[in-house]
Amino acid sequence: MQHKTPPKDITFTVDLFRPEDTRGVVRLFQAVYGDDYPVKLYYDPEKLKEATAPVTAVPYWPGPWTVRLWEFIISSDQSSASSSMNGGPAWVLKEYRSLGISESIAKHLMDEVVPRLGIEDVFGEPTCAHVTMQKLCADFGFVETVFELCLVRANLYDRTKPASERMSTLLQFRCFKPKPHNVFLPRVYEDELRFLYSALEDERTLVPVAEERLEAVPSEVWMQIYDAAQVARIAIPRAGQDLASRLDELEQEALSRDVLVLQVWLKLDKATVVAAVDTLRSRGYFLGGILPRWFDTDGLLMQQLRCHPDFQSLALYTDHARSILQMVTKDWERACRQELRKTC
Prior knowledge:
Elements: E1 13-16, H1 22-33, H2 45-52, E2 57-60, E3 84-86, H3 101-117, E4 121-124, H4 132-139, E5 143-153, E6 166-175, E7 182-186, H5 190-197, E8 205-209, E9 220-226, E10 231-238, H6 243-256, E11 261-267, H7 273-281, E12 286-295, E13 297-305, H8 319-343
Parallel strand pairs: 3-4, 7-8, 10-11
Antiparallel strand pairs: 1-2, 4-6, 5-6, 9-10, 11-13, 12-13
Helix pairs in contact: 1-2
């Protein structure tokens, strides 16, 4: 698909998504990714119309440029907190990337959409293939709190890469309305979590916990598998005494569907998170980072890999991100040594 280079003096405005925008969005994804983007929602105009209407922002052009370019940021249902919003990925056709469109849309969202919708916390998930979106998030006051190793296929960002290569991402958060609350820190990760929380401006009471048992109730667990990305995300709002057996079932299902990356979200609002962390560490999971307001209260991300990270290919914008990578890498190495001992 060929697109003409726009005039240098062209102007545009940013507004919320309109139903007639869907076909332009589909054309954008086809131009950037072909048919390979793993979230197939973006190729279905009708489903996209239903999913994006509340908060998607799109640049509008005069005359014939209206359908030439689309960039948008879409809300997410990944977390259960209705007061949080995923700043989402942003796409611009190559010919239009020097016009400041990403900055204009981000400013529109932060200055107008967030206050209008009463959003209290916003997060973004920039790739580590380049620093463009990391820098944009940092410029708007976002702070890195999570390193997601091997989350996506590298050929989504570079079509010359083989499908077997993986690319890592960050999670960056910004609080717009503080909600002070208690956060229970598993002693095994106390230093790491205190470091992550030191970068946040909103208030928490950090409570270290050395030991605790799982609750004497059934676990509340659900899993979503993204087959095209080979990723499974497991949320554990409540960790009960049957946690290990529930994980056995979910991991077996994920393995049967060729999942390479498993992520687990734990709530940090109860001391029992310590026992859940111990259970996960014993199964080869390692630290990912903290998830501010993920469940309205904070969450903890842990991850397990069935592939090897390519640490040499990571592009990071801030020293803070590099520090998070160091702590995540150290715990990944611990998990690898642990799993190796199991096979000996």
